[in-house]
Amino acid sequence: MRTDRGGGNKLRALVTFLIVSVMSGALAAGLAIPFAGLAGVGSEKVVETVQTLPRELEIDPVAVRSRILAADGTLIATLYEQNRVPVSLSYISPIMRKAIVAIEDSRFYEHGALDLKGTLRAMLRNQTEGEVQQGGSTITQQYVKLSLVEKAKTAEERHKATAVTYERKLTELRYAIAVETQYSKDQILERYLNVVNFGDGTYGVQAAAQHYFRTSAKNLTLPQAALLAGLVKNPTGYDPTNNMARAKARRDVVLRRMLELKVISLHQANTALKAPVIDPDKVLKVPNGCASSRYPFYCEYVVSKLLQNPALGRTQKDRDHYLKTGGLTVVTSLDRRMQKAAQASINEHSKRTDSAIAAITIVEPGTGLVKAMVQSKPYGKGSYQTAYNYNVEKSYPGGFGGFQNGSTMKAFTIAAAISKGIPLDYRINSPQQINLSGKRFRTCSGWTRDPDYTPQNSTRGGNITLVEAARYSTNTYFLQLSQRVGLCPIAKIAQSLGMYNGQTLEPLDQVISYTLGVGYVTPLMLSNAYATFAARGKYCRPLLVTAVQDKGRRPIDTPGIDCKQVLKPEVADGVNRVLSAVMEPGGTGGRLNFGNWDLAGKTGTIQENKAVWYAGYAPNLAAAAVVADANLPYTNLMYRHTLDGRDISDPTGSGTAGPLWQTAMEGALDGMSLRRFTAPTATVSTGDRTNLPPVNGMNPDEAEDVLRQAGYDVVISDDRVDSPENEGTVAYTDPRSREGAPEGSLVTIYLSNGQS
């Protein structure tokens, strides 16, 4: 009996203290003393806890899902840690507001931060049961608790924010007082309804309304509102997607409480009690992440670019968190019509069950906007699926890193030759096979050679011009041309057009066979480089993210279109003329021509047919298509490999990769305005014959210096030039040995202005 009287005295003392404190608006450190007496906690410790708390709660923005959009505004993907869409209180139906207040804090609009009745009721229960229980918290206190959980960045902070202790209750009360002075009741209710967990991965009333009922918070009905309000107490236990009967029982508790409080009429209650809980078939799952996107590979590459943007955070971890919680709107360059055309080409010419893979990237010249990116293996971990993106470099998780690209590299040799003044009608005697063993090729750092190199043509050779050599893809012509131009100028142009090794991210190796394909190149890289020719020498960095906005629709700094002139327009015009010959009748790409478009392109087949390419462009668009073996070690495509369900018997750039390019480009260009290439100037077409400075009697080094000082770029070769078209055009020939040349050989200085 004495124990009961002692407990009663403590409660009466507490009641008196709370009433005085709340009425005076001074719920301060003294509040801790009676709490401590009841809970068996040292009063000094609890007083210290309260006194050290700030008087205002710094509330972090709630986590909001972000969206990635196509260029036309269509949703590509949703990214989130919590599926939440904040809305204003005016956008939440009145019945939803009434339901949540009725079941969680019916006197919300009457009391301050502390509801004396509710708190004392909970305290009496706690004292009777001998432990600290949940209960008695006002909506403001609940909002504080949820906000502290949101703010918690470590496991220890999360535990502290949810621990069932009087210290935590005191913390909530102190902060609740601050919140009640900072915000109106409606503002607190709005914030609460936007932060609270409604089960099944949904946070906030708007996301919950969309998820369970495919409606908005503004249009929630009475039974729907009652269900959502009931979920707050136990979001997992009352989740209707887990236990419909338990969810209904809880909903009905809310409805009866609303009737008891005269918030609704008896008729409304009876009608709502009969309503179905949810329609399981209409539950809307909001996909999360790129794996759920219709364009997963493109989406993942976009995310990788966003994670490189310092405007989204100091570290990559910070950026990833902001991307999934900041409510960002990311607009991309993806053109759904072009993506559909490229995918249709993949579907027409390949199957996911093929042993070979196919990939296509489409880029817009003059902007670098990446319009489409497709491949034959779909995204996933199952059979005939992959997580590799075959279109991009290996600088982010999922990037495959490319394939050797064969003769598509000849385009850069053409550009370098034209830049050096070599005309389009420049002839070189190009036999079916040529011995380049030990021949020296100048690089950016000196010389290189191959002790045993006797390449040959897979097509015709002869005494042919630059245009003819491109049309037939004559290897021996381009090897000799690259020797005369020098590997360094070719490599510099390729690098300025964004070409590098997609596996190592290093510059492509300057080896004798550079013009025939070296290193590993991606479809994105190659299509964007060829887009530079279409844009008359203007190179643009590939661009996928065109705009980023925060949840307040304010723009966030992001790299935009970044272009610069890297080739003279007349040089690019010359390249376009040469590569358009490839697509004329008799050219290696002649069968791929379509419509009235001006088209240019180049085939590519690497040694042993491990990969075949077709890269080409119109003035409006550029694309690169590849078919390859993507399994290490790479093997010949014509042995045990299939494409479109059939054995690949004769893999070629034009016959195997070409149709993929053609179908994709034809569909992508459909409806676009017809544009033409600019014709090259006469100087580019036929060369500029100028008088040479006198170099007779000089040794090779002196002659080279004089010619360079006169403005000529010169190339050194140890071959005798004896073809008829070169008679009288040799700038300098000396029978004495030059360093690295075979003993007794002729040393010839070839001019880069079209003479040799």
- How many β strands by DSSP? 22
Shape type: elongated
Strand content: 5-15%
Average residue pLDDT: 85
What is the gyration radius calculated from CA atoms?
Answer: 37 Å
Structural class: alpha+beta
Number of helices: 25
Question: Level of helix content?
Answer: 25-40%
List the helices and strands and how they pair.
Layout: H1 2-24, H2 32-39, H3 43-51, E1 66-69, E2 75-79, E3 83-84, H4 94-104, H5 116-129, H6 139-151, H7 155-162, H8 166-182, H9 185-195, E4 202-203, H10 205-213, H11 222-231, H12 244-260, H13 266-274, H14 296-306, H15 316-325, E5 329-332, H16 336-349, E6 357-363, E7 370-375, H17 410-419, E8 428-430, E9 441-443, E10 446-448, E11 462-464, H18 466-472, H19 475-485, H20 487-496, H21 523-534, E12 538-540, E13 545-549, E14 563-565, H22 569-582, E15 600-605, E16 611-617, E17 622-628, E18 642-643, E19 646-647, H23 653-669, H24 682-686, H25 700-709, E20 714-717, E21 732-734, E22 747-751
Parallel strand pairs: 1-5, 3-4
Antiparallel strand pairs: 1-2, 5-13, 6-7, 6-17, 8-11, 9-10, 12-14, 15-16, 16-17, 18-19, 20-22, 21-22
